[in-house]
From TrEMBL:
<feature type="binding site">
    <location>
        <position position="313"/>
    </location>
    <ligand>
        <name>CoA</name>
    </ligand>
</feature>
<keyword id="KW-0479">Metal-binding</keyword>
<dbReference type="InterPro" id="IPR042099">
    <property type="entry name" value="ANL_N_sf"/>
</dbReference>
<feature type="binding site">
    <location>
        <position position="502"/>
    </location>
    <ligand>
        <name>ATP</name>
    </ligand>
</feature>
<feature type="binding site">
    <location>
        <position position="539"/>
    </location>
    <ligand>
        <name>Mg(2+)</name>
    </ligand>
</feature>
<feature type="binding site">
    <location>
        <position position="528"/>
    </location>
    <ligand>
        <name>ATP</name>
    </ligand>
</feature>
<dbReference type="InterPro" id="IPR000873">
    <property type="entry name" value="AMP-dep_synth/lig_dom"/>
</dbReference>
<feature type="binding site">
    <location>
        <begin position="389"/>
        <end position="391"/>
    </location>
    <ligand>
        <name>ATP</name>
    </ligand>
</feature>
<dbReference type="GO" id="GO:0003987">
    <property type="term" value="F:acetate-CoA ligase activity"/>
</dbReference>
<feature type="binding site">
    <location>
        <position position="517"/>
    </location>
    <ligand>
        <name>ATP</name>
    </ligand>
</feature>
<keyword id="KW-0460">Magnesium</keyword>
<feature type="domain" description="AMP-dependent synthetase/ligase">
    <location>
        <begin position="93"/>
        <end position="480"/>
    </location>
</feature>
<protein>
    <recommendedName>
        <fullName>Acetyl-coenzyme A synthetase</fullName>
        <ecNumber>6.2.1.1</ecNumber>
    </recommendedName>
</protein>
<keyword id="KW-0067">ATP-binding</keyword>
<comment type="similarity">
    <text>Belongs to the ATP-dependent AMP-binding enzyme family.</text>
</comment>
<feature type="domain" description="AMP-binding enzyme C-terminal">
    <location>
        <begin position="533"/>
        <end position="615"/>
    </location>
</feature>
<keyword id="KW-0007">Acetylation</keyword>
């Protein structure tokens, strides 16, 4: 990883810079002095952020650091749900809208902070009646409906850690998570709406809990009205048990380090890791990042994280961060193409969304669909755009800025992980002159570095691994039930540092560019080539909508590059034009990066396999490329996609 290759240097010498709009800069929540202030004493700076929350008992020590185990705001007590809801009602903000919710079929609900308080109190009373106590885990397997937020907050209120399992995960995946964290209660719904049809959830729960003897109760929200199987001894309807409860509830205060949630995430092995987050530090981190990075003015802004709550982005930037800041958010149940491909733009227009946060993969989907879908809508309310989930290629960044942001909205490309709890590397919208494709700099109070194999920081202009060198409040507190794996996975590669698993480059100005997971770095004939780099080259070709590149095993070169490509406007039917395009693309990559990066094989395919959080499942594509049995597909959004790709592979694409 010493010398950047040609394409990467092209990326790094990307000369476009976008300065903050002056009016935004002037009024921004984060002003230029913030970095110096935080650098002078990062822990004190975080304490200042923590003081914006409401604590029943103040902390005695801000940080206890027994590497790799951190405790923040030790001795402090608070209740996360009270911080997210009750204190705003107490401050006279009960009438402020917490959520403009929209169901996929077009039904809507407006939920104020006063409404939310009552809903959470009722749910907390109901969970108590069902035997949930502090410290006992609750699994939540729900569609994107307000009850999902209510269930999470009710758990937080009771000190019962939740584990939200994405509603599209299989029964197997759900069972594994319930067993791993020993959940006794499952909260679910009959189903939710996706792509214009009800999609069932309860049957998967039935299958999952059949093998979970610890599960006492299944609480079911009625959303679609589908028929559901019923076990009288175990299942209860939400409307039967929650609706009749008192709408007040006295909240207990918990230690700052009380577990708040466990979120499972896939690592390099087959078994997902239960990432543990706790209360005071996490809430401090997500509320501070939300306020400063998205520049949220809660009295006037409408904020929309267009992600699923079953993903960490939903936890931190739909639920905990925005609510801690008394923000008005949009929450949407369904897919962006239902009933039409302009659904999101209707929503932005209808609720006058000011800040939109989404993933590059979605942006590239919109690119594929074409800007005409956007042009009929008034998006002038937007003033800030965010990106998360994977490196954003400059083309998508520029497209986002131009077609969605009307060339006036700053883009914050935010790097973080399930493990980090909240954003760590990001521009600040009123301060940073951004570069398309770069996540730029550590957030105030965060110490990060790009290091080489030997753990020493690289010089500007070089690549290496991203590490975090000091503890931060939102950091994971461990892997549920496996402290050794925690140490081993994150703290053993570079001494004293958190190893994120991402490759990064430091440019000549000292700004950080994320290059994707290091396990996605290919080694072709001894040359290191980043998958992102080849993808970047492919996506730069006018015909390409999206590209995923994997390193396949190759007897001669170690690894060989295999690219899976979706084409703008779809693949033409006649094989000849497909073949011509493949030749053209290989030459294009060779031209952009060099002959070494020329893919051995390029497959034109209608779709790429993605997780529900929008990440391309390169692991599966590697299996396909290597002609292996497919590994775990439980996290896949649409399992039929891989088989379609496999078929193309064997028939020669
Ligand atoms: C929030 C979230 C974490 C991994 C992370 C990295 C990739 C996320 C990114 C990004 C480049 C960004 N990632 N944001 N890469 N630029 N702005 O996505 O969490 O699902 O745990 O994924 O996603 O590779 O290591 P999670």
């Amino acid at each position: 990883m010493s010398e950047p290759s040609d394409a990467l240097s092209a990326l790094l010498h990307e000369s476009r810079r976008f300065s903050p709009p002056p009016e935004l800069a002037q009024r921004a929540n984060a002003q230029p002095g913030i970095y110096a202030e935080a650098n002078a004493d990062p822990v004190a700076w975080w304490e200042e952020q923590a003081r914006r929350l409401s604590w029943a008992t103040p902390w005695d020590r801000a940080l206890e650091w027994d590497l790799p185990f951190a405790k923040w705001f030790v001795g402090g007590k608070l209740n996360v749900a009270v911080n997210c809801v009750d204190r705003h009602v107490d401050a006279g903000l009960g009438e402020r809208v917490a959520f403009h919710w929209e169901g996929e079929p077009g039904d809507t609900r407006t939920i104020t902070y006063a409404d939310l308080q009552k809903m959470v109190c009722r749910a907390a009373n109901a969970l108590t009646e069902l035997g949930v106590t502090a410290g006992e885990t609750v699994a939540i397997y729900m569609p994107m409906i307000p009850e999902t937020v209510v269930a999470m907050l009710a758990c937080a209120r009771l000190g019962a850690p939740h584990t939200v399992v994405f509603g599209g995960f299989s029964a197997d995946a759900l069972r594994g998570r319930i067993l791993d964290c020993d959940a006794r209660t499952v909260i679910t719904a009959d189903g939710g709406y996706r792509r214009g049809a009800p999609s069932a959830l309860k049957p998967a729960v039935d299958v999952a809990v059949a093998d979970c003897p610890g599960v006492r109760r299944v609480l079911v929200v009625r959303r679609t009205g589908q028929d559901v199987g019923w076990n009288d001894a175990r299942d209860v309807w939400w409307h039967d048990v929650v609706d009749r409860q008192a709408d007040t509830h006295t909240a207990e205060m918990f230690d700052s380090e009380h577990p708040l949630y466990i979120m499972y995430t896939s690592g390099t092995t087959a078994k997902p890791k239960g990432i543990l987050h706790t209360s005071g530090g996490y809430l401090t981190h997500v509320s501070a990042t939300h306020r400063l990075i998205f520049d949220v003015k809660p009295e006037s802004d409408v904020f929309w994280t267009a992600a699923d709550i079953g993903w960490v982005t939903g936890h931190s930037y739909i639920v905990y961060g925005p609510l801690a800041n008394a923000t008005t958010s949009v929450m949407y149940e369904g897919t962006p193409d239902t009933p039409g491909r302009d659904r999101w733009w209707q929503i932005v227009e209808r609720y006058k969304v000011n800040i939109l946060y989404t993933a590059p993969t979605t942006i590239r989907t919109f690119m594929k669909w074409g800007p005409e879908l956007i042009e009929g809508h008034d998006l002038s309310s937007l003033r800030l755009l965010g990106s998360v989930g994977e490196p954003i290629n400059p083309e998508a960044w520029i497209w986002y800025r131009h077609h969605i942001g009307g060339d006036r909205c700053p883009i914050v490309d935010t790097w973080w992980q399930t493990e980090t709890g909240g954003i760590l590397i990001t521009p600040l919208p009123g301060i940073t002159a951004t570069k398309p494709g770069a996540a730029m700099v550590p957030f105030p109070g965060i110490s990060a570095a790009v290091v080489g194999e030997d753990g020493t920081p690289v010089k500007p202009g070089n690549g290496g691994y991203l590490v975090i060198t000091q503890p931060w409040p939102g950091m994971l507190r461990g892997i549920w039930g496996d402290p050794e794996r925690y140490r081993e996975t994150y703290w053993s590669r570079f001494e004293g540092c958190y190893f994120a698993g991402d490759g990064a480059k430091l440019d000549e100005d000292g700004d950080i560019w994320l290059l994707g997971r290091v396990d996605d770095v290919m080694n072709v004939s001894g040359h290191r080539i980043s998958t992102t780099e080849v993808e970047h080259a492919l996506v730069g070709h006018p015909s390409v909508a999206e590209a995923a590149v994997v390193g396949a095993n190759d007897a001669t070169t170690g690894q060989a590059i295999v690219a899976f490509v979706t084409v703008k406007g779809g693949v033409a039917d006649d094989p000849a034009s497909g073949e011509r395009l493949v030749v053209d693309l290989r030459d294009h990559v060779a031209r952009e990066i060099g002959p070494i990066a020329k893919p051995r094989q390029i497959l034109l395919t209608p779709e790429l396999p993605k997780t529900r959080s929008g990440k391309i499942m390169r692991r599966l594509l590697r299996d396909v490329a290597d002609n292996r049995e497919l590994g775990d597909v439980t996290t896949l959004l649409d399992p039929t996609v891989v088989n379609a790709i496999k078929d193309r592979m064997t028939t020669g694409g």
